[in-house]
Amino acid sequence: MKGIFITLEGPEGSGKSTQAERLSDYLLRKGIDVLCTHEPGGTRIGERLRKILLSPRSKGMTPLTELLLYLASRAQHVEEVVKPSLARGKVAVSTRFSDSSLAYQGYGRGLNKQLIRKMNQVATAGLKPDLTILLDIDIPQGLKRARAGSKGDRLEREKREFHQRVRQGYLKLAKQEPKRIKIVKVKGSIAEVQKRIRQQVEELLKKAGYRL
User: What is the pTM of this model?
Assistant: First the structure.
C-alpha cells in the first residue's frame, strides 16, 4: 500500500497535537500502520532546534534566522523520519509542515513568499502532503487556550496582529489549494472536531484503496 502523508496546520491553540494523536490512535485501531510526528522537531536534531525556536530567551531572532531554523528542522525531519515511513507504506501524520513557513514567516513576518516556496522545495526534496487539515480558530480564543496556565512560548507571546496575519495567511493558502487543504472549524467539543477531521481523512484513504 502506498504511503500517505497527512498534515495538521493552524494558528496557536487550535488543538493540532491533540487532534493528531486522536487521529493516529483511531487509524491504529483500524489496523493502519501510522506514524505520528511533529514540527519543529520529530528528530533528535530537530528537537534541539525546537527549543531554540520556541524559547522566550530567543527574543530578538530575525525573521530570516527563524525561517532557516525551521527549514533545517524540516529537512532533517523529512530525510530521517517522514520519507522512510512513507517508503514503508505508512500513513504519516504530522503537526505542521511547509504551510507553516508560508503562514508564519511569509504572511506573519512579511518575508518573500516565493523565496519561502523555493526554500521549502529544497528542504523537503519536493515532498508535499496528500492532505492538509487546517484547524481554523478565532485568534482570541486560540491564544487564550495556548497561553492557559503560562505566558506562552516565544511565538505564542507575539502580538495579536501577528497571529491575525498568520490566520489570514492560512485561509489564503487554503483558497489557493482547495483540493489539498481542507478547513475544519474548531467549534464544539474535541470529539466533534475529530469527527470532522476523520471524515476528510477517510475520504482520502478510501480513494487510496484503504479499507476502513
Answer: 0.96
Confidence check: pLDDT of 185 > 80: yes
Asked if residue 88 lies in contact with residue 1, where contact means CB atoms within 8 angstroms, the answer is: no
Contacts of 200 (CB under 8 A, 6+ apart): 131, 133, 182, 184
Q: What is the pLDDT of residues 28-49, one digit of tens each?
A: 999 999 999 999 999 999 999 9
d(CA 186, CA 66): 28
- State the Cα–Cα distance between residues 99 and 102, nearest whole angstrom: 5
Amino acid at 43: T
- Tally DSSP H helices, then E strands, for the chain: 9, 5
How many CB atoms are closer than 10 A to CB 130? 19
Region of residue 107 (phi > 0: left; psi between -120 and 50: alpha; otherwise: beta)? alpha
Q: How far apart are CA 153 and CA 146, in angstroms?
A: 9
Can the peptide bond before residue 178 be classed as cis, meaning omega within 30 degrees of 0? no
